[in-house]
Amino acid sequence: MGTPAVHPQWTSCAAEAPQASVAGGVDALALPRLGGGFAPAASIVCGQQVQRRADGGQDLVATESRAEDIAVLVAALRLRDEQPTDGACTADLPIVPWFVLLDEQGGWVRRGVPKDSCGKVRVEVRDAVSGLRLTRVAARVLNEIESARAAASGCSQGWADMVAVETRQSSGARRAVGSAPFPAGTQVRLCVYRVPSSEQGTVKPAGELGCAT
Can you tell me the distance from the alpha carbon of 2 to that of 72, in angstroms, rounded to the nearest whole number? Predict the structure, then answer.
């Protein structure tokens, strides 16, 4: 597979991690493996998580974390690939976060992970990564998932027009509407969604929360 060069100095997940890879290092199965020419001293893990704000809203946040005690991870990365099985394998594809190894001088490499008998990431590597004691060093908001208005109102941030789905796609008899769909005294929340022009007229138009009462 070759031996990629050691990068001279780590900068950040935002600069070094391709956006498509931040959510998971699927491509690590095909990368060159860790050899003896690099002495790992720490690891940087790039990931994503949903984070709630003080105002009740939620954001999707890209995180950068550092681990110093990586002996278990390094040992797992040096394992050999298991022999391919002749038996059945499950269809799932367990992955590990996007991570790199750093040496004492701050140089870094991204190395491949050993495969199990089904060609997936060996469980020892998955356990080693999940067991790292991580210290967050940076975070950046990628996009808002839920606004403060949605959190306070009890309405979801987005909603699809299920009435349109029912009326356009239903091949059977339409459901009857009762004269009193809500018992007397029932409190009802009204959530109003704005549907952008790009969604209007589609099979399942979706909108963003406009207001709630």
Answer: 24
